Amino acid sequence: MTAPAPTQFYQKLYQILTAPDTINQDSGNNPKNPVYISLCSPGIPFSPSSLDFNPKTAEGFSNISQFSYLVNNIPDTTGAANSVVRDPKSGTFQTTGVLVWDVYKDILSAKADDIELSDEEQAKIDRLYKYLWVTQESTDPFSGNKTVETVETPEYLAYKNYEKKYNTALTTYNTMLITANNSKDPAVVQNFAINGPIYEASVKDAWEEWNGAGHKNKVEQVLGVLAQTLKGTPASKFTEMTVEFDDSKRKDLSGAGIFYPTPFIPMNFFTSDAYADSWTNYHFDETESSSYSDVSTNYVSMGTGSVFAALSDFGFNIELNIDSKINRQHVKCDTDSYSIDFELTQLPLRRGWMHAELLTATYWQWNEGMNNGTISDGTIPPDPKYRCRMPVYPTAVLFARNISIKANMKSLESQVKNLDAKQEATLSWGPLSLGKLSRDVHDQEKEGYAKITNDEVKSAGMCVIGFICNIVGASPTKGPGAPQHVSSLAGEQAKRLDIDEVLALLEDDQRVEVFT
Question: Does residue 371 have a pLDDT over 60?
Fold first, then answer.
């Protein structure tokens, strides 16, 4: 049986986001670690002004605090086995109520192996950390107090920026390739035949830049060493990391909440013309439907808070705010012909306050009598018996903009015309937030409103449609809370990197200026 249109849409999007690199032979056919895709339902609307993170203004400071709370929510993966794409490594974005910085704070309070290091050994480890992170002092624009925060070095920022550029090139190429393979439209196939080599060359160029100016090999080797059981990351290093973490702490403008700034990279992505070509055009229509047939109709277990309550038909979701109460309506569109177009980009997140290698490091365990549970058992979906606190965490945000959905919109038009002029209403389709609704055609021309005709819904606005998440390995690796199978993982670890070999790689490294 052919899968319904919303499910087909999700499947293609998942394919694009997880497709390997088949162009660069030295990429290992897939340079990225396995990831978990968490899609919003519906998307979360953002305006460019709400993504201005200038800490010197009240608005910018408020923006970064709200954004940091959002992207540090840990997605609920317990229903992942019933995901939309029949792959356990995907699901709808529903939060667990646990924040990344809460878990990280608990790790920093754990018992670290206290190992005596020689001055030479300590100097080697310090140099590795200093290759990736540096502390800088700034002045709080509101209190005037001096604050210190840990941020990435120019080399580490260059790594992340060129990784973003590479991911954009790879996603654009894979989108064209996947669409050409699944579409019955000869023009689509012809477009790939003609332009495919151009986009393939862009992937090669981006890969070479990431390996060159992006310091890919050096950064990953350093991260690899730091993640291993070294001869020592002693308790003193935990003390340093705790100081870094505490120095990054900020109080939001309500005065009641604490947050740790987590912007995206590059921070000026939405205000600089330099990134105008960093968006991928996504297209899906009914000619691709036969490629996603024979799929079960039990796609995903949706929470009661989800607007996208129906995956079985091509329809829109209207959310009404009536007397401060939310009322949700699903409007089915009867159509045999449809198309969905939008621009897509993924932006990596920047957590200067967190050393991610600690999550699965083997040199710490929970203090006796203070078992903080299992962070992850290393599997998706996690084994329920462990009640894992953070099996995944967001590392990149997916933005969509300039959305166009074409279909027979007569039923939607009719529903919108019946809206009470005083009612607040918003429109969405799957993970795509389409903006506010109004029966007044003049309102529909305003920013933030969906524009509806009898055959199309358009939205020039922007929304977060989901997150790309790292899958956390088994953690902790020993002591209370450690998964039962974790001991067997020790023999499966990859060949250990030699710290002196990695330090030798850094000898010829030049400090760089990086675009931000």
Answer: yes
